[in-house]
């Protein structure tokens, strides 16, 4: 049996999946959590997990890292089902409002098109590509995806609730959806390769359940629209506090803000609205 050649741009010998490169890229993205001088919209984009996934996909294409395809498929499916569950009942309109306040007004039609371009197209293309290649998805990729996504949340917000990064949403149901979506992707790819229609239907139905739990909750929309307004008011208050902070003259004659306490410093570094 012929031995597989190492992947392009392999950083460490004996690393057949070039995980070292992936870890390096993830670390660089994490280091961009707060970059002085960046526009709020750009800073927020760098803190979004969907964009991390897109950067990995672009890197895979640019550097021909085809061994990443199973991981990217699991990650993209998890993002898709997680986002749909999180943004059920029109909560995505709050996301559009947030993006507008960050400086990018989008019509509803444009927002929906971009939503599907960023969240629906990648998993569809990756899964179909694996099926055409008859490439199975090793179960270990589930561990990699859950490890990266949980590390992302703790690194960016300190907990699993990513409402501060995005908008208030049912984060527990979102995580259930992500876990189910990731766990279902390897058997789903197998079922598609073998053309087992009933198994495909069963797995797709299982992935749909967390979304339905959000969509059919009669109190969900009111609760999270209210929490979004509270979040906006809090951010506006923090912004006014930073603007009204006492200023002193530096030795060079320039004025600078003097926020008091570490908590105030953290608030003044906030780039979200």
Q: Can you walk through the features of this model?
A:
Residues 239-273 are annotated as: Disordered. The chain is an all-alpha fold and 273 residues long. It has a two-stranded antiparallel ribbon. It has one domain (19-219). β1 and β2 form a beta hairpin. It has helices at residues 19-31, 40-46, 49-63, 69-86, 92-101, 108-119, 121-133, 140-157, 171-194, 197-215, 220-243, 261-268; strands spanning 247-249, 255-257. It is globular and about 65 Å long. The N and C termini lie far apart (57 Å). The protein is built from 12 helices and 2 strands; from the N terminus they run αααααααααααββα. The model is unreliable at 253-267 (pLDDT under 50). 66% of the residues lie in helices and 2% in strands.
Class computed from helices, strands and strand pairing: mainly alpha
| Strand content bin | under 5%
Poorly predicted spans? 253-267
Morphology: globular
* Quantity of strands, as a count: 2
**Rg to the nearest angstrom?**
21 Å
Mean pLDDT: 87
Overall domain count: 1
Sketch the major β-sheet.
2 strands, antiparallel
């Amino acid at each position: 049996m012929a031995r597989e050649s190492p992947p392009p741009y392999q950083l460490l010998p004996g690393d057949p999946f070039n995980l070292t490169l992936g870890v390096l890229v993830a670390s660089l993205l994490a280091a961009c959590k707060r970059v002085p001088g960046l526009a709020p919209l750009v800073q927020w984009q760098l803190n979004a997990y969907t964009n991390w996934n897109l950067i990995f996909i672009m890197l895979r294409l640019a550097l021909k890292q085809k061994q990443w395809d199973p991981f990217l498929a699991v990650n993209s499916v998890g993002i898709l089902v997680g986002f749909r569950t999180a943004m059920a009942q029109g909560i995505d309109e709050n996301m559009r409002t947030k993006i507008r306040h960050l400086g990018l007004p989008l019509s509803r039609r444009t927002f929906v098109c971009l939503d599907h371009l960023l969240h629906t197209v990648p998993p569809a293309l990756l899964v179909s590509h694996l099926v055409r290649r008859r490439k199975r998805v090793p179960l270990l990729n589930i561990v990699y995806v859950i490890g990266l996504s949980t590390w992302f949340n703790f690194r960016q917000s300190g907990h699993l609730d990513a409402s501060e990064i995005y908008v208030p949403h049912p984060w527990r149901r979102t995580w259930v959806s992500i876990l189910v979506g990731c766990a279902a992707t390897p058997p789903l790819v197998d079922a598609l390769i073998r053309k087992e229609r009933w198994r495909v239907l069963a797995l797709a139905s299982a992935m749909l359940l967390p979304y339905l739990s959000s969509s059919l909750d009669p109190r969900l929309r009111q609760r999270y629209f209210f929490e979004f307004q509270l979040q906006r008011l809090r951010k506006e208050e923090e912004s006014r506090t930073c603007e009204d902070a006492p200023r002193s003259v530096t030795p060079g004659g320039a004025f600078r803000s003097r926020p008091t306490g570490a908590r105030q410093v953290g608030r003044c570094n906030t780039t979200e609205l």
